[in-house]
Task: structure prediction
Amino acid sequence: MEADKSVLPDLISGPEAATLVNEYWVNSGQAAQSPFRPVSQGGLGAPEDQQTYDRLAFLLRKGYIQDYNIGIQGGSNNSRYYLGAGYTDQDAFFKVIGFNRASIKFNFDQQLSKKVKIGLTNSISRSYRNQARLGDGPQGRLWGSAITGSTYSSTHDASGALIGLENTYSLVDNYDVNTVSLRYVGSAFAEFNILEGLKFKSSISTDYNLYDEYQYWNSATSIGSAVNGKAIESVTQNNAWINEQVLTYNRKFDAHNITVLLGNTLQSNTLKYTYAEGNGFANSNYKLISSAASTLASDRWTKHSIASYFGRIGYSFEDKYFAEASFRSDASSKFGKNNRRGYFPAIGASWRLKKENFLLDVSWISDLKLRASYGITGNQAGIDDFAARGLWSGGSPYADVSGTPLAGIGPLQLGNDDLRWEKTAQTSLGLDASFSKTA
Result:
């Protein structure tokens, strides 16, 4: 694949840019000081003698995508399996930027008996990404360096050495920003048909992601030149799991249909973040932060959990009258001990008028249903994991009598035992109608 150059900015040539610069000086009343005048007059040469340095053309390349997948599946009357693997490799239209991912997947279902079924899914992948700053920020911008540099300005001096630290050529040669992600997603379930219409299912799933981001800026870049090389690494470990038990009952008696659901859910999410930075390296062959002259590091850890119970009962008669009621109770570790658990009921009913005798023969009405519902929902988004807790920090150093810093403990946050769920009550009334065109 090749970049669509029609959407790219149309850069002016070196002579055109030099002419515009001269026009600026002329319009400013300083024509004699125009930089692009004959060399004999102390200038850089006439505008028409300037060369064109197209940094954007150098930065762009033909991108490609390679995608390979292989899979094996099979089974019998009582079992099914799938084993697959894949590999993707991509090079972006901009030099430096690239991505590759390798993955393996395994699924398996087994009918142990007429009443018992089990299954599992597993997927593990490793991704590697070369990243780059395109246009944001004042330093290390690949795109910005290519379009903001004057097209008459040379990229190399007479000896062939690169000119400037934000030179597109220099950035392409010295960019070292990448991320590695190792992710596992898996689940398992067991399903039991206890009686006719009565089913119980238990499942557990987990999502683990290890994300490692690394940057190294050597002394040939503007970011690294000030400190003789800079390395930054941040590692994020995120682990989420959920366990759910659901009991369902579905039975039809003549024109009556009843559905009952009872369940319990336990879920948790743990996040750990570690940051390290090193400044000052002997040379660009040393890239580990432990090789830096000065280092600093920090880390943080957080976790939240929810325990939920829920139920729902539904009833319908002759596919005309419907009623449903549900209730759930959620306890979140984010809230204070006085209000940790929230209760969220809901009720609804509907009447399918189209099924009534007085509308059955009305051909231009395809369906007509009147419905009403009321419910309360809870929200905990935006609440910190330990927002309700009184917290103390170990990062409160103090000095002894001789001025030596010692580790200390200090208050960080006041607790709030009354912090509670945000609740929203909603009432809905509606008439659903659909019509058909008749001849």
